[in-house]
Amino acid sequence: MSRRTLSICGAAIVAAGLFGCGPDEPKPGTVLDEAMRAGVKAESLRAAGEDYFHDMDYNLVEGRRSTFTPQQIEGRNTWLVWTGGNDTLWDRLTIDSIGTFDLLKTISSHPDQPNSPYGAGYGRHNRWRYLGLVNEPCFKEATGPDPNRFGLWLDARDPSCPSDPFADATKYPGVKIGARGKTVPVGSYYGEPAGIVGLRLLPNPNFDEQARQRWNSERFYNDPSYYFDSKLVRPYRVGMSCAFCHVGPNPIKPPDDPENPKWENLSSNVGAQYFWWDRVFNWRGEKNESSIFYQALHVSRPGTLDTSLVSTDSINNPRSMNAVYNLMPRMLEAKKWGRETIAGGGLNNKQFNDFVPAGDPLSQFFVWPGTTWTPRVLKDGSDSVGALGALNRVYLNIGLFSEEWLLHFRAVIGGRPISPIPIETARKNSVYWQATEMQTPNMARFFLGSTDPHYLKDAPGGPRYLAEDAATLQRGKVVFAERCARCHSSDIPPLPSGLDLEGANGPNYLAAWNAYWAWTKTDGFKAQMREKVLRDDFLKGNYLSTELRVPITLLGINACSPLATNALRDNIWDNFSSESYKTLPSVGSIKIRHPVTGAEYDYTLPGGGRGFIRPASLISLWSTAPFLQNNTVGHFEWSPSVDARMRSFEDSIEQMLWPERRDKDPLFANENGPGVGVIDRITTDSYLDVAEGYVPDYLRPLVGASRRLFPFLGGSGYSVRIGPFPKGMPIGLITNIDLLGSEMPPAEREAHKKRILALLKHTKDELKASKDLPTVLGKLVDDMLAVSKCKDFVVNKGHYFGTDYFREEPGLGDNDKRALIAFLKTL
C-alpha cells in the first residue's frame, strides 16, 4: 500500500467515520426488509383493535370525555405501539454511535453498572426525573436479573394488571426469521412492552446459538471490554413507536407522581416535552461528559432533539417535539394557502383519496395528478406532499426499512454522499412500509378526535392563574389582534385583491409574503383582526397559527434549523418535499455574530427550500414552555404539575417579551440588543474515543501506522482517541463542518474534502502548540467557518416582536405586555 493511500486511510480514522477502505455494501434498491424475506404479507400485519388505552387523552368536549370509533382506536394503537421493524435500526446504532447509544442499557435498572447515568440507585423509580421518559403503567422496577429474559434488569409487569394485549403472539404472530423460534421466541409483531411508553422489546433474530453461548448479562452491565464490542449480539432489539417522542403527561390531568403515572394522566399528542436527549441517546449521561458525542448531544435542551441526527445533514439543529392539536382546523387552514405542487418521486405518496370515497371530508386535500393542500408538520415547512406523506416519512426516520435507508447515507457521522430513498423502492421491498401505509389513515382519523386544546381553566388549580380583570384581558386581546394574529391565528380577514398566498408557493413566494406582511401592518387589517379576536368564539376551531412560511430575515432566530438540507432536491427526503418547496427563493441575508470576536457580519442564505420557519401554534401555550423552536428561552421545570408549568411559562414568556432578560454568552457580557444570546460551548476538554471493539478488523492494521503519520491520534492497542476538543470551543464549529460540500460543483467538492482533512490536522497541531483557547481559535476559526454548513451560533435570539429590539414597529409598553400575557394564558 502506498504512503499516500495509507495517509488517506489514516485520515479517515481521524475523521471518525470516513472509512473509505471498507467492504462493499449492497446497492440501494436491492435489499428486502425482514418481513418480506420471511414471506410475511402486509395484510397480516394489521392494526390491533383492542381499546387498551381508553383512559388516555382526557379531553373535555362540552363537558364530556372524547370517545373514539373502531377506526380511531386502531389509529391510536398504531401511534402508540407500532414500531414497523425499526428495532433493526436502533440495534445497529449501538455500533454506528460507537457505543454511545444503547437502548437496552437505557431501559435497565441495574443498580451498579459503571458509568450509569446518575450513579448507584438509578432505575425506574427516578427515570422520569433524570431521563424525562414516561414510565408505562402496570410495571414495577427490576429487583434482580430476570432468568426469563436472559438475566437482564428490565421492568417487570405488575401481576395485578391484565396482560398487554399487543404482546399476544398467537393473535399478532411475529416475523419468523433467523434465530426466532430457536434460541429466542418468535413473539408478536408488536413485541412486548419494555416498561417505557413508546419502547417495545422484540426478540433479536441474530441471537443464534453462538451468540447465546457468548451472552453474559453481568458483563453486559459491568465490563466495558465486553459491551463496547461491535460483534456483541444482544438477545433483544428495542423498537420505537411514535409514542416515544409524543406521549407526555396530560396538562389538565397531571399525575400525582410523575414516576408512576396512570394511563388517565397521559396524552398521546402533547409531545415529549421533558425528554433529555443527551441522556437518552447517551446511556452514560453526564458521566460521559468528556465525549465529543455527549457535547454534540448536550445542545439539545429537554424536549428537543435533532431529527436529522441519524441521516445527518452536518448541522446541529435540535428542535422541540411537536404537539399535535386541532388537526381538522389545521387541515382546513391548509386549504387556504397550503397548496403545493408535487412531482417526481413525490407523486408516489399516498393521499387520503386512496382510502376514502369521494365526498368524504378528507378527500378535498388532493387533486390528481400533483396538487395537494397540506399542513406543515416540520418546523421548516419542508414536509409538503400531504398529511399522509408526512406521517409515513416519520416511520422511515425512526428506522422503518433501515436495511435500505442506511444505504443512502452514513448514519450519525456523515461523510459520504446522500441519495434519496425512493417511496417506490420502499413499497416494492418492504412489507413494513406497505403495512404502515395501510395504517396511517386511521392514525389521522384518531388525531381528528384526540387533539382538542388543553385549557388552563380546566387544569387543577388553573383558574387561579387566570384571575385577571376584564379590562386587562380585553386589552390583551387587542394587542394580540394587532401584533400576533398575523402569524398566530388561522382566522384572519380575507386577503386583499391581488394578494395570492396559495398560488405563490414556489419561486414567487417571498414577494407574496412581503406583500402580506405589509398588509398586516395597515389600519384596515388591524381593525378587522380586532373585531375577530374580540368575538367570544374566536378560539373555537382556531389553530392559532397561519402555518405560512416566514423568512428568518424577519424572525431573527438561529438559522441552523431553517438551513436543514434533508428535504432538498436529491437529498434523503427528496420524495417527501414538493416542487413548491424545492423552488423557494433565497430569503436574502441575515446578521450573525462571529463566535470568537462577537463581531456582527452578513450571512447570505441559500435558496431551494431553506431559510423559512412556519409559526408554532399557540394552542395550550401555557403548558409548552420553554419557548422558541429549540426550547432555549425560559427556565425548564422537570415536574409536569400545573404550578411547575406556570413557573416555566411565566419566566419564558417574560424573556420573550423582555429579551434583555435572556441568558447570554460571556462574549456579550457588556452588550444587549438583537442577536445577543447564548453560544453552546464544550463544557470540558473532550475526545472522540473509539473503543477497540468498534475498530473494524480490516482497519486495525492501519491504526499503528496512522499514529505514526498523525501524532495527534491517541489510544492504546487498536483503540483510537482524537482530541482534546477544548473546553469553551463552540460545539457548532465541529458539528456544523460540511463534510461533503454537497451544494458545490463536483471538482470543488473534491477540493473541499481535502480542506476538511487538512483542517483537522491543522486544528490538532495548533491545540497541541498552545493552551490558550482564544489564540488557537483566532488562528483556526475563520478556516472552520469557511467550511461550515451553518455559521450561526447564538441559539436563543430572535422573535423580538412587540419589543424594542424589533425595528419595524414600536415596542409595547409594560402594561400592554402584561395584558397580552393575560390573554395568552387563556389559549
Sum this structure up briefly.
This protein is mostly helical and 827 residues long. Strand 16 (589-593) and strand 17 (600-604) form a beta hairpin. Mean pLDDT is 91; it is low at 1-22.
Describe the protein:
The protein is mostly helical and 827 residues long. The chain has a domain of 210 residues. Helix content is 31%, strand content 8%. The protein has 29 helices and 21 strands. The strands form 9 sheets. A 3-stranded antiparallel beta sheet has the order 5-6-7. Strands 12-14-13 form a 3-stranded antiparallel beta sheet. Strands 19-21-20 form a 3-stranded antiparallel beta sheet. It is globular and about 75 Å long. It starts with a helix and ends with a helix. The N terminus is likely disordered.
What gyration radius follows from the Cα positions, in whole Å?
A: 26 Å
Taken from the alpha-carbon principal axes, the silhouette is globular
Tell me how many strands there are.
21
Supply the helix-strand structural class.
mainly alpha
In the predicted model, the low-confidence regions spanning at least 5 consecutive residues are: 1-22
- How many helices in DSSP terms? 29
N-end to C-end Cα span: 68 Å
Query: Widest sheet: strand order?
Result: 5-6-7
Helicity level: 25-40%
What percent of residues are in strands? Answer: 5-15%
Largest sheet geometry: 3 strands, antiparallel
Look at the structure and give the mean pLDDT.
91
Write the layout of secondary structure elements.
Elements (H helix, E strand, L loop, with lengths): L2 H12 L19 H4 L22 E2 L2 E2 L4 H12 L5 H10 L6 H4 L20 H5 L7 E2 L15 E2 L34 E2 L5 E5 L5 H6 L2 H6 L1 H4 L8 E5 L2 H4 L1 E2 L16 E2 L9 H4 L11 H6 L6 E2 L13 E2 L6 H11 L1 E3 L24 E2 L3 E3 L13 H11 L4 H4 L17 H7 L1 H20 L19 H14 L1 H4 L20 H12 L2 H11 L16 E2 H4 L23 H4 L6 E5 L6 E5 L7 E2 L28 H16 L28 E5 L9 H10 L3 E2 L5 E6 L6 H4 L10 H24 L3 H14 L27 H11 L3
Antiparallel strand pairs: 1-2, 3-4, 5-6, 6-7, 8-9, 10-11, 12-14, 13-14, 15-18, 16-17, 19-21, 20-21
Helix pairs in contact: 1-25, 3-17, 14-17, 18-21, 18-29, 27-28
